């Protein structure tokens, strides 16, 4: 890649934790402007993909697309074709358009594999869309709970029920408090010309022991940030633009919870020091919530906790 590997927000966070010089060397070797064949084959074997986009008001959203295996294909190393339409009620219905930035997270929980691709939507059709690659890179298996998805499709009596609220209702609160996985979308805000291919939209995975996202009064969430790959795609975006989108999935019944939040990075303090393994905390203030019942046509069995979480704490212990 000839353009910057990391934008100014990512570099600022890397500098704060003392890894900017190292990442300036590592980044260009592992972040590409094309997909290696291994990544192309990986996306093609997935029954779902996590998607990050931004709406017309500048709010990032984390979404999900799901179809039988084979709905994603890569005609060449610079493009992905997704033969899928947004689920009814998913914010992606209103954000997907030709020319918009998009982030994709391909994740296979039962093998703990994941690969990322950020790009631009092109060739939107009634049956799907194409994405032109801006950045492609792999992620380590840390913090992924092992559970295998099964595509079920078909009709469900609760399918189509949509619940909107300004904060967390009781059902949404229960989803968050039980979660061991969350997906977070964030977006670059700054000089796009200077950021080059490092700008755009990103969507990422976070995992922890069940209950690792704490729910406080007034729909304020607090989540530990564990040791990662030092790319700081999410935190780098938040450093410049505090708006983010969260997606929680109920793996037993297919319920989906979409949250629009404002995010703050907590770098120090007694809460952080008390949570074993946390490098930082994210304080997330819910602005709006949308919950869909039985919307995702996938079901999973019980999850197997990531070995990387054994030596991390919990809010009860903290």
Quick structural summary:
The chain is of the alpha+beta class and 318 residues long.
Describe this structure in words.
The protein is 18% helix and 39% strand. The chain is α+β, with helices and mostly antiparallel strands and 318 residues long. It has one domain (8-301): Roll (Pnp Oxidase, Chain A), CATH 2.30.110. The strands form three sheets. Strands 9, 10, 11, 12, 13, 14, 15 and 16 form an eight-stranded antiparallel sheet that branches. Helix 1 (8-16) packs across helix 7. It is globular, with a radius of gyration of 18 Å. It starts with 7 loop residues before the first helix and ends in an 18-residue tail after the last strand. The model has no long low-confidence stretch (mean pLDDT 94).
Which key features would you list for this structure?
about 325 residues, alpha+beta, Pnp Oxidase, Chain A, 8-stranded antiparallel β-sheet, 7-stranded antiparallel β-sheet, 8 helices, 17 strands
């Amino acid at each position: 890649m000839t353009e910057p590997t990391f934008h100014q927000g990512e570099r600022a966070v890397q500098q704060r934790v003392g890894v900017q010089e190292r990442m300036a060397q590592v980044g260009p070797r592992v972040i590409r402007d094309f997909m290696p064949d291994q990544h192309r084959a990986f996306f093609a074997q997935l029954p779902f993909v996590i998607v990050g986009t931004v709406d017309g008001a500048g709010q990032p959203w984390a979404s999900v697309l799901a179809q039988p295996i084979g709905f994603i294909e890569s005609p060449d190393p610079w493009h992905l074709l997704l033969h899928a339409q947004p689920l009814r009620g998913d914010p992606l219905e209103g954000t997907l358009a030709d020319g918009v930035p998009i982030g994709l997270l391909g994740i296979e929980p039962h093998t703990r594999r994941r690969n990322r691709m950020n790009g631009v939507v092109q060739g939107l059709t009634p049956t799907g869309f194409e994405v032109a690659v801006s950045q492609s890179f792999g992620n380590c298996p840390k913090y992924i709970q092992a559970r295998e998805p099964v595509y079920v499709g078909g009709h469900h009596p609760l399918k189509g029920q949509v619940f909107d609220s300004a904060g967390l209702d009781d059902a949404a609160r229960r989803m968050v408090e039980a979660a061991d996985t969350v997906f977070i979308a964030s977006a670059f805000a700054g000089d796009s010309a200077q950021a080059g291919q490092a700008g755009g939209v990103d969507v990422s995975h976070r995992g922890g022991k069940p209950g690792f996202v704490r729910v406080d009064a007034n729909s304020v969430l607090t989540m530990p940030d564990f040791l990662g790959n030092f790319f700081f795609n999410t935190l780098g975006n938040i450093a410049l633009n505090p708006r983010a989108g969260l997606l929680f999935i109920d793996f037993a019944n297919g319920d989906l919870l979409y949250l629009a939040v404002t995010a703050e990075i907590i770098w120090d303090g007694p809460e952080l020091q008390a949570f074993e393994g946390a490098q930082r905390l994210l304080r997330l203030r819910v602005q709006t919530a949308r919950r869909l019942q039985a919307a995702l046509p996938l079901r999973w069995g019980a999850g197997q906790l990531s070995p990387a979480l054994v030596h991390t704490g919990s809010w009860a212990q903290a």
